[in-house]
């Protein structure tokens, strides 16, 4: 029935007055009770925001309602003391006939007459659950049946049941006979009889007095009386049984009528007949609903609640009972937020007491009641669940071990616990996984506090009894649980010896690293460090350091023993690895010891591999506990700074994320991106709270918060032409200020230590200092003026010293330090490096300055002495960002190599491991290993490979050294330089024996022949020169049209020389006459490698044209063309018996071919390869067969040894760096020497029993 016209006109007339004054939430409560408004309608109006907006929405709804709604609205105004407003509506009250009105049940009357509890004083609707219950109740419209609402203690089942039936349409269509509520609880039979007698008496009150009967005397009689009343007198009514515990109680109501019950035991209706429907009540409210309850209790706005409110909801997982209990307490003591949060965190449940709408005085009583109904033997089993961790789901197999029961029996017991809402089950997994609600677990821990140690001891002993010395490694849910939590159980059981034995074992590290992330292992050593240190703190730190520095390698599941052989000789990790390697080598397993590793020192503390793709930014939180990182993957991730364990991951932007920064209180993170947006995230909730997307029109390069919370601002800079530096107040939708001054992209911006100034670094060659308060330009530092010429100068970044008096700026290959007040340049930091400065960062607590270079290195400099104090080598690509920890003890660096590294600055030193270039030569002589290579300072070094001792070091050369070779017979070393100069030096005196001029461009290769009398060199200038270096006589071999990368003397014809070039040709020369004998057009692309067979009858070439060719040394014709490689073929090698050829390409693939017919024999690692193996870490640059032809060694990103017959990898050595160029192999195939791209020398020796 539509609203009367007069009533409608009245509402329109006084609408403005009503909107100004009424509080809709109070009015709507009455209208819902009268059945003229649904909970969904109420929820929609509540979502409108401010009170006035809600009032507008309510009046809009009223205009669409009928006369009953108008009357209910009028009555609500009177009840809420809006008498003046009600008087405005009184004259136009609809005239409704008593009979017409009576035909529609009054919801409030129905609820009252049926004994349905009123809404709690503080009520928050749960519309989704209410609608689910109603859907099930509508199923009872045509036939009797049962609707079960089940859930754990305090989940709000009773409130939900009463709210679901507070619905006019439901009553009218399904239950016009009424709603009858009966609270049951835990009852004995006499008490149950009294309950049913009471219900029967209530139902008989509306009947004629002649039909009244005496009260039933037995349960059977009561059951029949109730059946008669429900079926004959109230045939279309609903009986609600609240808080049912026992199926025997439920049988007394099995009378073929419509019943809804609330219970903690979902299986109760198995014992009764009829249709059955279920609704599970979630154990907790979402955060918004939980905060709404607290706000209503404390008469506050949600946004006005203290931070403790959110913590309370989070701590109790949104339990309606706990939130309501604490809300009621806070209503009386509003200043006790922190106190009640502490009680909750400390599991002091007895102090969280009494809610008038609940049957138990305190939370612990409600929990205990659920457990007391279990059989005694099951109560003991339930007690064992005290040892579980929060939010951890376990399979039945784990509990089968713990309880020493068959899995089938365990599953039955767990089903009982689940049915009684004492346990939860995740049905989305196979096998099913079981878990406790936090409150249940907290209660168990509190109840069994004195037995915690013994309960954990039982877990460990049961595990040891079953698995003895062999840990489960299947990778199923059970084995994952034991591998993850066994150490925790041992620690909590105080089984210190067992814990030492386990965690000081390389076997355990191997097992756990194969099944879980390395971060879990590192966390174990941190969490149990205090216990382990009592046994041996040195060993604990050795294991922890091994994991921290190799965690990124462990992700690829390498041979852990081989990885551990790179640890220092004094390390327990190395000792165990050496023992295992010796034992396994007796069974034919390959292992290699790094002989000269003691020369390598590292500041690196932790290596994290957080993203796929380049990392552009990483930063510490201000408490130093977390690290945030972002990059090309478009994601933002947050990790623990101690272990690298991931705490948060967000898909942050639609394009690359270029920078991230923590707010000074660590509650927020800002990100900026190539998508031109700036976003601000809440760290704890992993939630986006602000987006600034309209002001920057080009990519946003950098963002930084102020250093203190005194006035929280965010600075950003971008590639915009003019409006490229902005300062944002997070409470405003647009930027607070725009700094004008730069007319080119701005790469970096940062606040001064006191937050008064913002510095900006631009492609226009300047650093500008802006006053934050006024946005005015204060000073300009013209970095470009320090350079000669008109070339472009891009200032990458600037950084303030801790006292705010100096500022360092990075551009090109130098860093300049300026006085802020005078803008005078104080000094320049210019290293010998040829690479560009990528970033610099000043330490907030000391005089250290960190500098990152494009050649992947990081250096630490002392700003007082202007001296370098440390090299931080380890990154394998450009280092994009640096940051010191707040206390200055650590330095963080992130790189395009996809890693974040932490360096310990308190252990700074200038590395004794001088970085070497990869072009090298090696002589293996008896027990000696002599290595020659240039270092990063462009000095030639000759070293004892075993001891690491420098035998000779030249002066720094003016031109870059590009190749070197040793002559054992004459104790000399030769070197070739970029300017074409060739020198021969005496070792170890360093005396210059010859300086050979002739080449006009870079010398790529040099080699002594004829016992050192002749030196052959090849060059970028397309020539080969043969020097009688002692006399200065030289023969020039002319003919190649492009650079000559290599040459080799024919083994069966010592007077002939083979050379190959980027011009695609191979040429044969007579070394005596210098005449060209053969000009072979070998390939369409550059010839990248060539190798002559051991007997000198064949040679093979590889090319950028992706082919391999085999040539005859008699006819100089092509014998085979080998195709199949998908990339440039960069390396090749004949086996010693001449039957096979191995080739390697730029895709990391190695192929083995038959020399006889050119057929493909094997593709190494084609089967069972992982992501790393498939790439070999990069190009395959060198290959060598063992003398017996059974093994093959290859280099690329790392070194691999292969079984030639099977084509399977036998062992892998992971260097600190990548891009190995060449490997030198001893004649007996036992010793291997190479240098990586960060300059570390590796002398590896096969472990032999």
TrEMBL record:
Transmembrane segments: none annotated. GO terms for biological process: apoptotic signaling pathway; regulation of apoptotic process. CDD domains: WD40. WD repeats lie at residues 650-691, 739-780, 872-913, 996-1037, 1037-1079, 1080-1111, 1122-1163. Gene3D superfamilies: 1.25.40.370, Death Domain, Fas (1.10.533.10), Helical domain of apoptotic protease-activating factors (1.10.8.430), P-loop containing nucleotide triphosphate hydrolases (3.40.50.300), Winged helix-like DNA-binding domain superfamily/Winged helix DNA-binding domain (1.10.10.10), YVTN repeat-like/Quinoprotein amine dehydrogenase (2.130.10.10). The keyword Nucleotide-binding applies. One of its GO terms (cellular component) is apoptosome. Its main location: cytoplasm. SMART domains: WD40 (SM00320). Monomer. Oligomerizes upon binding of cytochrome c and dATP. This is Apoptotic protease-activating factor 1.
């Amino acid at each position: 029935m539509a609203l009367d016209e007069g009533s409608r006109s009245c509402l329109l007339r006084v609408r403005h007055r009503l909107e100004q004054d009424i509080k809709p939430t109070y009015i709507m409560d009455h209208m819902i009770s009268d059945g003229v408004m649904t909970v969904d309608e109420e929820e929609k109006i509540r979502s409108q925001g401010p009170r006035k907006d809600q009032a507008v929405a309510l009046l809009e709804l009223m205009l669409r309602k009928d006369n009953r709604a108008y009357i209910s609205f009028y009555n609500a105004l009177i009840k809420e003391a809006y008498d003046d407003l009600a008087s405005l509506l009184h004259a136009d009250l609809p005239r409704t006939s008593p009979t017409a009105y009576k035909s529609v049940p009054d919801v409030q009357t129905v609820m009252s007459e049926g004994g349905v509890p009123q809404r709690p004083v503080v009520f928050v609707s749960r519309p989704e659950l209410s609608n689910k219950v109603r859907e099930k109740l509508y199923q009872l419209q045509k036939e009797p049946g049962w609707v079960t609402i089940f859930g754990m203690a305090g989940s709000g089942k009773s409130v939900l049941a009463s709210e679901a039936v507070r619905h006019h349409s439901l009553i009218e269509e399904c239950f016009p006979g009424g709603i009858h509520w009966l609270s049951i609880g835990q009852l004995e039979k006499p008490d149950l009889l009294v309950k049913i007698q009471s219900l029967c008496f209530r139902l008989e009150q509306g009947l004629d007095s002649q039909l009244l009967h005496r009260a039933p005397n037995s349960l059977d009689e009561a059951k029949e009386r109730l059946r008669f009343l429900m079926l004959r007198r109230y045939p279309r009514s609903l009986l609600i049984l609240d808080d049912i515990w026992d199926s025997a109680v439920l049988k007394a109501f099995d009378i073929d009528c419509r019943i809804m019950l609330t219970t903690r035991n979902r299986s109760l209706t198995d014992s009764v007949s009829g249709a059955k429907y279920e609704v599970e009540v979630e154990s907790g409210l979402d955060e918004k609903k939980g905060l709404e309850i607290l706000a209503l209790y404390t008469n506050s706005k949600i946004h006005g609640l203290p931070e403790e409110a959110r913590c309370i909801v989070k701590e109790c997982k949104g339990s309606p009972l706990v939130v309501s209990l604490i809300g009621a307490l806070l209503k009386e003591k509003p200043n006790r937020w922190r106190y009640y949060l502490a009680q909750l965190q400390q599991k002091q449940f007895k102090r969280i007491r009494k809610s008038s709408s609940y049957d138990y005085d305190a939370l612990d009583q409600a929990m205990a009641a659920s457990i007391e109904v279990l059989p005694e033997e099951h109560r003991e089993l339930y007690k064992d669940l005290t040892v579980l961790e929060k939010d951890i789901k376990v399979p039945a197999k784990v509990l089968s071990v713990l309880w020493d029961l068959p899995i089938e029996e365990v599953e039955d017991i767990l089903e009982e616990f689940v049915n009684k809402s004492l346990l939860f089950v995740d049905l989305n997994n196979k096998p099913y996984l079981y878990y406790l609600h936090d409150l249940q677990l907290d209660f168990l821990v509190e109840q069994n506090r004195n037995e915690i140690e013994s309960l954990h001891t039982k877990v460990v002993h049961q595990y040891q009894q079953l698995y003895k010395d062999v840990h489960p490694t299947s990778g199923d849910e059970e084995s994952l649980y034991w591998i993850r939590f066994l150490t925790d159980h041992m620690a909590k059981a105080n089984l210190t010896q067992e814990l030492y034995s386990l965690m000081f074992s390389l076997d355990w590290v191997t097992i756990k690293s194969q099944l879980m992330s390395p971060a879990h292992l590192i966390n174990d050593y941190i969490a149990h460090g205090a216990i382990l240190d009592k046994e041996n703190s040195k060993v604990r730190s050795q294991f922890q350091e091994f994991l921290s520095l190799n965690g990124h390698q462990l992700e690829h599941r390498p041979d852990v023993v081989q990885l551990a052989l790179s640890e220092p000789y004094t390390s327990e990790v190395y000792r165990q690895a050496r023992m295992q390697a010796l034992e396994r080598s007796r069974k034919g397993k390959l292992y290699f010891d790094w002989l000269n590793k003691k020369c390598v020192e590292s500041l690196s503390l932790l290596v994290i591999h957080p993203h796929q793709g380049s990392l552009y930014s990483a930063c510490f939180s201000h408490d130093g506990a977390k690290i945030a990182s972002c990059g090309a993957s478009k994601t933002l991730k947050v990790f623990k700074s101690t272990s690298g364990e991931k705490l948060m991951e967000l898909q942050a932007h639609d394009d690359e994320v270029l920078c991230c920064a923590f707010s000074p209180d660590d509650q927020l993170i800002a990100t900026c991106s190539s998508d031109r947006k700036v976003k601000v995230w809440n760290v704890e909730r992993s939630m986006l709270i602000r987006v600034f997307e309209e002001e920057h029109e080009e990519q946003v390069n950098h963002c930084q918060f102020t250093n203190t919370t005194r006035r929280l601002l965010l600075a950003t800079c971008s590639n915009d032409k003019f409006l490229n530096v902005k300062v944002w107040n997070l409470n405003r939708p647009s930027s607070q200020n725009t700094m004008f001054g730069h007319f080119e992209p701005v790469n970096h911006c940062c606040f001064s230590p006191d937050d008064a100034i913002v510095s900006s670094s631009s492609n226009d060659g300047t650093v500008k200092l802006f006053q934050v308060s006024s946005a005015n330009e204060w000073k300009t530092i013209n970095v470009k003026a320090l350079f000669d010429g008109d070339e472009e100068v891009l200032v990458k970044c600037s950084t303030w010293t801790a006292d705010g008096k100096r500022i360092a700026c990075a551009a090109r290959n130098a860093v300049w330090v300026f006085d802020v007040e005078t803008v005078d340049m104080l000094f320049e930091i210019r290293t010998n490096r040829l690479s560009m400065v990528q970033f610099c960062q000043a330490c907030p607590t000391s005089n250290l300055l960190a500098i990152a270079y494009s050649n992947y290195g990081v250096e630490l400099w002392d700003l007082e002495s202007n001296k370098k104090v440390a090299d931080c080598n380890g990154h394998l690509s450009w280092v994009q960002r640096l940051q010191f920890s707040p206390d200055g003890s650590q330095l963080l660096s992130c790189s395009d190599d996809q890693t974040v590294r932490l360096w310990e600055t308190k252990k700074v030193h200038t590395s004794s491991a001088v970085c070497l270039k990869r072009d090298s030569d090696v002589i293996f002589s008896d027990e000696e290993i002599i290595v020659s290579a240039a270092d990063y300072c462009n000095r030639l070094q000759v070293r004892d490979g075993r001891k690491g001792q420098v035998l000779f070091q030249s002066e720094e050369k003016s031109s870059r050294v590009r190749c070197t070779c040793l002559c054992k017979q004459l104790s000399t070393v030769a070197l070739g330089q970029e300017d074409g100069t060739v020198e021969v030096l005496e070792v170890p005196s360093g005396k210059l024996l010859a300086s050979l001029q002739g080449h006009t461009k870079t010398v790529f290769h040099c080699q002594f022949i004829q016992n050192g009398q002749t030196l052959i060199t090849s060059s970028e200038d397309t020539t080969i020169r043969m020097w009688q270096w002692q006399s200065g006589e030289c023969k020039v071999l002319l003919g190649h049209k492009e650079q000559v990368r290599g040459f080799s003397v024919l083994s069966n014809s010592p007077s002939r020389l083979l050379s190959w070039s980027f011009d695609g040709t191979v040429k044969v020369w007579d070394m005596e006459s210098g005449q060209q004998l053969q000009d072979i057009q070998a390939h369409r692309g550059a010839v990248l490698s060539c190798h002559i067979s051991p007997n000198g009858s064949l040679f093979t070439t590889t090319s950028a044209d992706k082919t391999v060719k085999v040539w005859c040394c008699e006819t100089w014709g092509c014998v085979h063309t080998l195709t199949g490689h998908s990339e440039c073929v960069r390396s090749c090698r004949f086996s010693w018996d001449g039957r096979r050829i191995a080739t390697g390409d730029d895709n990391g693939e190695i192929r083995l071919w038959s020399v006889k017919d050119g057929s493909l024999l094997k593709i190494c690692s084609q089967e069972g390869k992982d992501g790393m193996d498939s790439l070999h870490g990069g190009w395959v640059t060198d290959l060598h067969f063992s003398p017996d032809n059974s093994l093959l060694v290859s280099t690329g990103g790392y070194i691999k040894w292969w079984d030639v017959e099977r084509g399977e990898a036998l062992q892998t050595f992971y260097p600190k760096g990548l891009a190995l160029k060449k490997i030198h192999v001893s004649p007996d195939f036992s010793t291997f020497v190479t240098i990586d791209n960060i300059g570390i020398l590796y002398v590896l020796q096969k472990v032999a029993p």
